[in-house]
Amino acid sequence: MNPVLIEVLRGDAVESRHAGAVAIVDASGAVHTALGDVDRPVFPRSAVKLLQALPLVASGAADAFELTDAELALACASHSGEPEHVATAAGVLAKLGLDATALECGTQWPSREPVLRGMVARGEVAGPLHNNCSGKHSGFVCVACLMARNAGTDPAAFARGYVAAEHPVMREVSAALSAATGVDVERAPRGTDGCSIPTFALPLRSLALAFARAGTGLGLADANARAARRLREAVARAPFMVGGTDRFDTRVMQAFGEQLFCKIGAEGVYCAALPALGLGVALKIDDGAARAAEAAMAAVAQALLRVEHDVLAGYSHLVLRNWRGTAVGALRPAQALARALAAPA
Amino acid sequence: MNPVLIEVLRGDAVESRHAGAVAIVDASGAVHTALGDVDRPVFPRSAVKLLQALPLVASGAADAFELTDAELALACASHSGEPEHVATAAGVLAKLGLDATALECGTQWPSREPVLRGMVARGEVAGPLHNNCSGKHSGFVCVACLMARNAGTDPAAFARGYVAAEHPVMREVSAALSAATGVDVERAPRGTDGCSIPTFALPLRSLALAFARAGTGLGLADANARAARRLREAVARAPFMVGGTDRFDTRVMQAFGEQLFCKIGAEGVYCAALPALGLGVALKIDDGAARAAEAAMAAVAQALLRVEHDVLAGYSHLVLRNWRGTAVGALRPAQALARALAAPA
Out of A80, A288, B196, B239, which could bridge B253 as a Cys pair, Cβ 3.0 to 4.6 Å? Predict the structure, then answer.
């Protein structure tokens, strides 16, 4: 069993507990912090979108289709389906001469409630562009279109089925993941992600290593090192694209810029890179709760950056309110996490 | 640490884990099953609404205001805010000569998504009647109105502030909880619930005892025993009221009638009574996840009722689908839970 990382208080009593594990390592793989079982494979889900976007830049597709910072940031995003996100994804596809029918991520309504309600009130319906992964998928289609152009075949036909593990695009994505993590993902436990692409279960230690590498370029081939840097810079310049209004990743990267790249994944995963410190972070809440993953990531960021910051404290000590707006409880880092982060590096 | 009760699979690999504890006892307090720490206090939240509704019947208020089965079932409900729920709560208040302004539960939009979208499309806004607790609160107001009538004072003025622990209505509710659980709740850790009334942290063992008593009448004062029976019968006759479309409690009680009374609470709590078996059940998922609470309750119900039933299996082995509708994983009872439930009573 992993230790409790985050406690949920109601009044003065602990109501719920979130166990999990945290790995913080440098680009050589040296462990800065390891709390819980950091060798057990976990599905990183959307937390590795930056790594999955490496081929978009490294292949030359981003240059070939003149992708902007906003478009590159959206390729690393789990966005809230706000109008800017939808328009940006549509813009990428338009550059390819394609439209939303090229996306194989499935339809998802915007996670941002006021946006969803506005659509409903106007009688609009959601499509694949509203899916939180539409930017990542638009990036995959870019890679497919460049491959098709190089092969002299029809781009739309070549792109079809790009979500399958054996498609040339997904092979590139898997290769980038293997190179960054140092784990042959073809041998890892495999599942299907929410957006229909494969997801591979990898140790937190290896995921943290990948983000230490992505933050520093150390241990990556030159093309991937340059790609990681360009993607991090793009997200730092267009942080709204990586999440959206009131989202953790957007708010934190608006506050900290290139000091901290962080990305949430489904089922309680978080990955982060702290380039100036040379560190990568990967954590998983055992039960999959996003509230605890955000609180733990905020606690880690505060400890590593040695800052007290309202945005981070607002997540690490999230105040819980009831239907009348009364504060009835709060999250807080549990003793095991607080101690591990307080220990000298 | 409590044992893992429910595992979440993605492909063939365990992606997430939900730990927790389960107490199953009879009305004498004899333990049928105890898995995990059943003596640690947990906030039962809405799982004890049947107990909180005992004064509504025992005081004579239900008779005085001629409450129907549907209205009594709604008093035990965490409903989805569907039109029938809203109309039924409004009907109770109308019998008192009052309206939604008497409710102190706060505003909540319907949890049932199509209902919410229909309201948004029609330009409607939510109010306290849509709050999942509006039936319980309407019941509290009934008790207040009977008290006011008996005291010869203005009902609306008397009812005001009924959510406070020291209000005469809430004192009755706390007394009913103490009597049923055998724990003096005034000495228990206290928090404020989502609907603004007090919630008291009590051991699962005591909560299970209360439901064994509520299912059998054994160990309760006559008035409370009769009240519990009437409430259980009302819910069995009007199970839609206790939850709503596609809700666990509604579907299970539609299928099993008076064989099984069950009620979910926030933060991963479930309580149940199996009158014919003389057993009460209380469980808590440590991390607060509803999906795991439902899966665990379904596994418990299958084991105790010795049935295989599609509705229960659909929760204990819930299939997880992605945005394209592809089955990507499933829940399942973990070994510790399966073993505890397989052991002879």
Answer: B239
pLDDT of residue B1: 87
Interface probe, candidates B16, B108, B111, chain A, greatest A C-beta count within 10 A: B16
Which chain B residues contact residue A121 at CB under 8 A? 120-121, 123
A41 touching B (Cβ < 8 Å): yes
Of B12, B117, B286, the CB nearest to A16: B286
pLDDT digits (tens, 9 = 90+) for B149-196: 999 999 999 999 999 999 999 999 999 999 999 999 999 999 999 999
What residue has token string 């509290």?
Answer: B140
As a whole number of angstroms, the distance between CA B3 and CA B18 comes to 8
Cα angle B117, B118, B123 (rounded to 5 degrees) comes to: 95
List pLDDT tens digits, range B116-162: 999 999 999 999 999 999 999 999 999 999 999 999 999 999 999 99
Cβ–Cβ below 8 Å for A324 and B196: yes
Whole-prediction pTM value?
A: 0.97
Please judge whether B108 and A323 are an interchain contact, meaning their C-beta atoms are less than 8 angstroms apart: yes
DSSP one-letter string for B55-103: HHHHTSHHHHTT--HHHHHHHT------HHHHHHHHHHHHHTT--GGG-
In chain B, residues with a C-beta closer than 8 Å to the C-beta of A187 are none
The tokens describing A151, both together, are 């092969």
